[in-house]
Amino acid sequence: MNDFDVPDGIDVLRVFCGPDGRHGNPLGVVRDGRGYPDDDSRQALARKLGFSETVFVDDPERGDVDIRTPDLRLPFAGHPLVGAAWLLDLEILELPVGDVEARQDGEFTWITGRPEWVPPRTLEQYASVAEVEALTGPPPGAGRLYVWAWEDEAAGRVRARAFPRRRDERGDSRSGGAGGIEEDEATGAAAMLLSAQLGRALNITQGRGSQILTAPAPDGMMEVGGRVLLAVAS
Questions:
Q1: Model's pTM, two decimal places?
Q2: pLDDT for 123
Q3: Which of its termini does the chain have fewer beta carbons within 10 Å around, N or C?
Q4: What is residue 126's DSSP assignment?
C-alpha cells in the first residue's frame, strides 16, 4: 500500500531507503517528458505532485533528464539522479552541468558528480545525535540547512536532517521550504557536500531512517549511493 495519488504515466520511487526497505525520499519520474513540453507545464506538475523533486525524462536512451522542485529547475540533485539511473538502468545521465556517471553495486545505485554542481546550503555540525533528533522543525534562518552530528566518527557514521528554509516576500523567515516542504527526508547533494568537506566516505542516516552512502572519487568527484524501490508504476 502507498499514499501516492499521481496521474498516469508517472512512476513514484523511494530513493535512499533504509536497510529494512522503509523510508526514502519520494521521487516522481515522468517517463515521457514530451507530455509536459515547456517550463510552465513542468513546474505546474511539480507543484501538483508536491515531491521535493520531480524528474522529466527527455531522452531515456541518452539519459537526458530535467529536475524540478515545486518552485524551480535544478542543475543537479542527488536523489533524483540516483532514482532515475536505477529506473532507466543507465550508466550516463546528461545534465546542463555535465555528464553524471551511474553504476549499480548490489542493492545500491551510485552516481558520481562534482560538489561544485550542488546548489549552496549551510552544513551545521551539532554536538550530538540527540540534538539533531530533538529538532521539531527547521531552526530559525533562511536558506537550505543540513544539520548533522557524528554517530560514530571512526566508522564514518553520521546522523543528519535537512531543511529547505526560505524567506517570504517581506524578508521574514518561514518554516516551510520549497513548495511548502518543511523537511527533506533524504538529500544526496547535501550528503555529497558534507563528504567533500570532511574528505572521507560516509554512512548517513537522515530523516526518519533513510540511508545515504558517499565516497570520494578521482579528480575531485564524489559518489553518492543508496537503495531505490518502486512505490507506484506508471
A1: 0.92
A2: 97
A3: N
A4: -
